[in-house]
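2 proteins. here.
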Amino acid sequence: MLNRALLADMIGDAYRIIEAEDGKQAVAALQKEGTGISLVLLDYVMPQMNGFDVLEVMNRNGWIKDIPVIMVSAESDAAYIERAYELGVTDFINRPYDVNIVRRRVMNTLMLYQKQRTLMGMVADQVYEREKSNNLMVYILSHIVEFRNGESGMHVLNVQAMTEMILTQLTAMTDQYALTAEDISLITMASSLHDIGKIAIPEEVLNKPGRFTDEEFAIMKTHSAVGSDMLDDLELYKDEKLVKLAREICRWHHERWDGRGYPDGLAGDEIPISAQVVALADVYDALTSARVYKPPFSHDEALRMIREGECGAFNPLILECLTAVADDLESRLNRGVTGREISVDSLRVVDSAREAGEAEASSRTLELLDYERMKYHFFASMSNEVQFEYTAEPPMIVLSDWGDRKLGLPEIIMDPYQDEAFCAVFGAGNLRDLCHRLRATTPEAPLVDMEMEATVGGETRWLHVLARALWSDENPPTYLGSLGKFVDIDDRQAELHDLQFKAYHDPLTEVVNGAFARKVITERLGAEGECDRHDDRHVLIVCDLDFFKQANDTHGHQFGDRVLQHFADRLRDSVRSDDVVARVGGDEFLLCMGCSVDPRPLVERIHRSLEGEFEGFPLSVSMGVATTDGGVRGYDELFRRADVALYHKKRDGRGGYVFYDDLSDQERAFSLDEPCTALSGIDRNDSDQ
């Protein structure tokens, strides 16, 4: 703390200073602020991570290229100093400090890097201007060809857009063709010149509205060779990569995978991948665009014709790419939107800034980054979401400003999976699950969507987690971390739980209803009448509260409701928590339980626990019992047997229970005509009074 205070006083009030007590805090500040940090004064001896560890992280993340570091240390050993310079430090200051040396070296380093950024900005502007001019010239040249051909100027842009989409998808699916980002950019630009040879085709052939004769088609086919010859004649530039790509696209974009194309009859991967992709893009846009000889086909029809080989054979891998990008084609095409156009549009900000007389490019870039950072923090605070960014090396999580206040956690947490407070909020098991899911993603499918319980302010709440894993560009890729958000959905979960409870439970007694009981029991008995545990015995009991009508008639319906609630409570108390207790009628209830021993003592105990009295009203219970003995596993048959047993019990006298297995064959053959149970028929009998 004393060393930091001394340095801060020496540097003065001209700068905003961020202090870090150790190496991990330093990395956290760099992670959060990025290029908003202009200079790092770094000691070697620090807790958690030493200065060299911090420099290694800065090198791994590429920060050392943009953020200068001055090493400040009492270590004067030449090996330390050499190691520091190897890791990219700009300067080295020994303790004890000299105020003039510290100020001058800080100022010089900042000025040096500012000049470097200015030069980089100037170079970037020049590259942009050159890139824009190249794009413009290529577009003008290709547009002249399309204009002479009577086609829409959008054809060139559509082929460009589709070429870039398919190449990008191809690199995501396979490394078979080893295409770099530069390759994709050059092929996309060169695709604009695919039909340049049509300049040499007579107009009466080029724009003929009807079908070509054999002679006319032979003339038309020469445009591919003519285009490549034109580019071959560029003596000064024919060795340029762009010209080479444009030449192979011009010559071979009408070749086909099965060797039936022209002009050279190449087959398979004899055809350069650039020409293969442009060929597919050219065919798709030709199908979906109006021509002098045909109306446009729909997007779906064009895809069908290409997949079914009506336009020639294509590389199956490229057809897979077409399928993968098919949903985006219609929205991207006919607008000329490619990665190249998007980047050029964004760089037009530079033109506006220059006209407005603003500062150099590097300053504009930093201002834009600060603006984006400000927008991020604003939307994070307004969305009531806990947004986060996690880095795997070093392990660290940064929470949004609003998020750390809501959760009661610090904004930056080192080693979050080992942090007690962080694990107490989210649960160690939940965090392990989230970590496993993120690391199980791929660069092509990086999203994780899950729900978890968290403890917020001492209260358990449900959170929806949406996260994206970050992967390196290496092969194989390395997991770098993740970013995402936690959304509080506890109120929604509570509403859903309440709706589910109401759907599955009887509103008066709060035991489950008959429909849900049927579902649960069917699952326990086994799907389609087959039990997954053949040694199980299940007992199903149908209960009826005798003389319940007298309770309503004598004491009123509110009293009758209390009787039913009391009876349901006693039913629940008489069985285990995982046994099924349901109300299946007015005063009719159902029990279902597993019982591996003789069920008769169990049924006797349950019956005794149910009988008694409630507020002076005698409770008498009749029960019919059926078991799965003998291989009965269907719910309907089991319920029917218990219902038949109950019918005979009530017919012979109320109170007590009867097992279906104890009935005679004649009694078992009895058929109940009531739609649900036989009980209501007996209850309507005058003898029930």
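next one coming up
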Amino acid sequence: MSGYASNIVTGLLLFPLIAAVITLPYMVYQYRKVGSIPWLRTLIVYSFVFYMLVAYFMVILPLPEDRTAVVPYAAHPQLVPFNFVKLFLDNTTASLGNPSTWPGLVRDPNVYEALFNVLLLVPLGMYLRYYFRRTWWQTLIIGFCVTLFYETSQLTGLWGVYEHPYRLFDVDDLMLNTLGAMVGFWMMGPALRVLPDMRLVNEEAREDGVRASATRRGLSFFIDLAAAQIAAGVVVDVAEALGAQAAVESAGAGWGLAVQAVEFAALAVFFAVIPALSHGRTLGQRLLKLRIVRPDASPARWYQIAARYGLLFLLAWAPFALLLGVVDLDPSQAGETNALAAIAAQHQAGIIWAWLAFMATWAVTLVVRGVRSAVKKKPFVMLNGLMSNTRVMTEAGARLVRERRAVLDVAEVAALERRIAEDGTPLAELMERAGGAVADEVRAWVPDPAPVVVLAGSGNNGGDGWVVARKLAEAGYPVTLVAPDLAERLHAEPARSTAMEAFSDASVRNLPLSVLIAPDADVLADAVDKAEAVVDALLGTGFSGDEVREPYASWIRAANRRRFEGARGKGRGRHRKRTHERGEHERGRRALPPKVKSAPFAVSVDVPSGLAAQDGVAARPTFAADMTVTMLAFKPGLTVPAAARWTGAVKLAKLGVDVPALRGELHEGEAS
């Protein structure tokens, strides 16, 4: 038992070094893949590394005293399956009929070694199922390969490091370790119901990764700074090897000054020349998918980039240069220079304390701004960025800012759709693509098939909803589509033909798609209570007004109540009832109430129903979405700050259309 404990201690001592080595590559990988570093994923990754380290130490330690050591019992592999059972039966004094002998079982080496062999890979099976999302047969194969690697390490004397095997290759260990991996896999099954889904953790990280966090920007800066210092060091070493130091000193110049000039030149190359030549990206920013742009996300000019980093280094260097200048002042000589130097020399201690107070205040404000940026999801802007009129954005964030600026009025969107149809892409095809884009978002946020409710209106926005319902049903999601009338009674085209085709297709293929036509309140509430996602495809860009008509108003209220107050079976009572009746989430307020833990993922098609796409004015009621997937281009109402509480995150689905080119053609046609 002490041997197992010593192996764990060895892992604890070595793990900080391993963690330090993998941290930078891990951060770069995470920022490139998902855009941010979720704490839960990081905790699991580092715990997995620690577990694998300790597990391997359990297998290979203790090591022999020298390379030529011969361990007799390990010389010949044990290839007889279940040999440990035979050894146990031959040597045990325990009897199943005598309970007093049972405690001795756990002290039998054949028993506790077998148990430890099973336990060794139990965590591996849990990690494989939860974090890596492996199936049972993949876990079986991976568990077997891992234990085979362990046993082969022992058989080969740690892959040739030692001349002879020093631990026994045992086929029983192969079986028991593999069984342990499967036990871990099965144990994780019930836990999956309560643990956060790692796929959702990754999706949330991607949403957060649109913003250039202070940590991400700081990491890119230090990567560039380290690269510049390494490059300068290489140049200086090569110059010294070629005799440059002697030549500089013989010319009467100082070698130290020359080294500083090389370091300055390296900084200029990495922070000014390279980003100017690579469209606003330093090497570190390219690695982490960042970009230097103007506040409106348009490309920054070379002189703005140079000013940004020139000011940064100036502002970083000047306080320390000032401090060193004050410290180096000689009170006896300062008066001969000027009165200001004399005053500074006489009050050195006070100036140094004032400098420390200033730097501490600056550091605190920096931390506060960084925390505020992280909490409020706002950009972290530094003084040099303000002075140079530049910002550091993620590539995705800069693209989103440009898309939000390129808004199209509702009338322009209609004209654009007509032009697309004239160019050979029918509106039915656009509807198919739009529904597919929304269905993809639902699958991303509800990764495993679960009940979904689609609220479909009678217009073309409702046609998008029918496509969403069909595509989710094809993926195995049980879908309930709520519509005001039968598909054949819809009047808008191509919504009518699309709805009829989707309904017919679902019937022929026996897809899990059911349709509720104008259901009563209880039936609708039951469907929404069970849903893991609610899709709002009721009212499109053509809506405006102060009130939503029935039955859409009741449907929106049912979805919002589920979002803010939970399922009807939870928290019933007078207070709950009054809250329902008041419709408190409809009150005009700067922020909506927090949604309940069990709230389904809510997504709106093109624009939340009840929100005017043209001016962002919210009617009573308005659908509260976690995400809005808008088609072709942003509409003006989606960019209004007050609309954010209803829209959630806004995603643009371009539907395979070159909108800027077509928009330019439309404007040219209007001008002519």
